[in-house]
Design goal:
By secondary structure, the chain is mostly helical. It has two domains: 2-46 and 150-173; 52-146. Helix content is 79%, strand content 0%. It has helices at 2-43, 52-71, 79-93, 97-119, 125-146, 150-162, 166-173. α2 (52-71) runs parallel beside α4 (97-119), α2 packs antiparallel against α5 and α3 packs antiparallel against α4. The longest helix has 42 residues, at 2-43. The radius of gyration is 25 Å and the shape is elongated. The N and C termini lie far apart (64 Å). The relative contact order is 0.15.
């Protein structure tokens, strides 16, 4: 009888260890896949540092440079300049992919509005060329973002995570889908 109890306990322990091992292994694998996919946002698909995050930094810089030009022609309290500065600060502070996408869209509108006003003003030739160059750089960053592979990589991960058994095991171990940049 005591041998049967020892055997049953050993079997229960073995089953629990198999379940625990499966959960830990699944979590590590899925979390690693998620981390690799998420890194594309910051380091790019080739790991060269050219990803959406670097394009956002360039857009933020170009937006600021447009404000520098605008300060020569508009009062400091101008709402268009202040909107660009405030939105740029929000973009730099945004931590999630969703928040960065939303704030970047707001910055797009703010920069376009400032550009339109500057375009209608009598800027010096040097300032006009510089402002247009910064606006072109800003828009180029947006174009690169629209062609960045991050969303495809994130969608692929999310599709893998939604399948069986990954979806079930991911849910049990806390591995979440990635947000898309949209």
């Amino acid at each position: 009888m005591s041998l049967l109890r020892k055997n049953s306990m050993a079997q229960i322990i073995m089953v629990l260890m198999i379940i625990l091992g499966t959960l830990i292994g699944s979590h590590n694998t899925l979390a690693g896949m998620r981390k690799s996919a998420a890194l594309v946002f910051t380091t790019g698909a080739r790991g060269d540092g050219i990803g959406i995050q670097s394009d956002l930094r360039e857009r933020s810089s170009a937006a600021y440079n447009m404000v520098v030009i605008a300060r020569k022609y508009l009062p400091e309290e101008n709402s268009l300049m202040q909107n660009v500065l405030k939105t740029r600060t929000s973009l730099d502070a945004a931590s999630s992919v969703k928040d960065k996408a939303l704030t970047d869209r707001l910055l797009e509108t703010a920069v376009r509005d400032l550009h339109d006003v500057l375009n209608g003003m009598a800027l010096s030739e040097k300032d006009a060329v510089y402002a247009q160059g910064q606006y072109t750089a800003f828009r180029s960053g947006g174009d690169r973002i629209s062609h960045d592979p991050y969303n495809k990589v994130a969608e692929s991960f999310n599709k893998s995570l939604s399948g069986f058994p990954a979806g079930f095991l991911g849910g049990l171990t806390g591995v979440k889908p990635l947000d898309l940049y949209e």
